[in-house]
Write a structure and sequence with these properties.
By secondary structure, the protein is mainly beta. It contains one helix and 25 strands.
Length: 279
Amino acid sequence: MKIIRTIASLLSSAVFLVGCGVGSPKATTVGGTVTGLSGTSSVVLMNNSDVLPIHTDGPFHFNTESNARYNITVNAHPDGQTCIVANGTGYTPTNGSSVTNVTVTCSASVRVGGFVSGLVSPATVVLQDNGTDDITVSANGTFTFPTPIANTVAYAVTIKTQPAGQTCRVTNGSGVADTSNAAVANNVVVTCAGNTVGGTISGLASGATVILQDNGANDLTVTANGAFTFSGTLTTGAAFAVTVLTQPFGQTCSVTNATGVIDPNNATSGNNNVVVTCT
């Protein structure tokens, strides 16, 4: 009987502990303070998958549980501002205490953008700002990166992926965000052109003619010194080889930088540095 009473007492204690929630997560909150919001702008915060719009400066919190991982990020920046989160990751205390030291600081910002020209449909070019924030452009015209840049922060627009059969180059692509002159960051120019092969010819006598070829075809008749370009375009990675098919009367033309591979990442474009010298 003593053993039975002992077992009954242990079972009663276990039921009491379960009823009190021992070992179960406690409800708690994680949050902090938002500062710097201007006008009617709103910032949308996210903790893991929970979304919380904030319309004014002041305290905020997400409901969660004790000993739970939190990761507070900016889901959407306010218009004309960038918000930065500090102390946004960690685990809530096991005793159910709230986390209150997350800070979200918002400040004036600009959006980086510009204009694309020369892109041939249906090709697309993928641009990046500061090595991230990818944007795919599929038509000529204006473009804007989705993530705003805080005042005095540097930006650098680059080509991540070139369009098929074309090479795009960036001018006015780098600078420092200046909220007092936001238009500067929107003056990025992306110019796309076909991957052509060409170069310059010199020494050709007046009235003389030389016929060039690329890859044993695509004949090009040149009658004057200066720049030349073969018709048609080549895909990225394609090889080219410029040769003389027909020499001019009384002269011999030689070719340097005659061979190579189309490489859009080469700023000097070796495929346009072919040199033909006639003597």
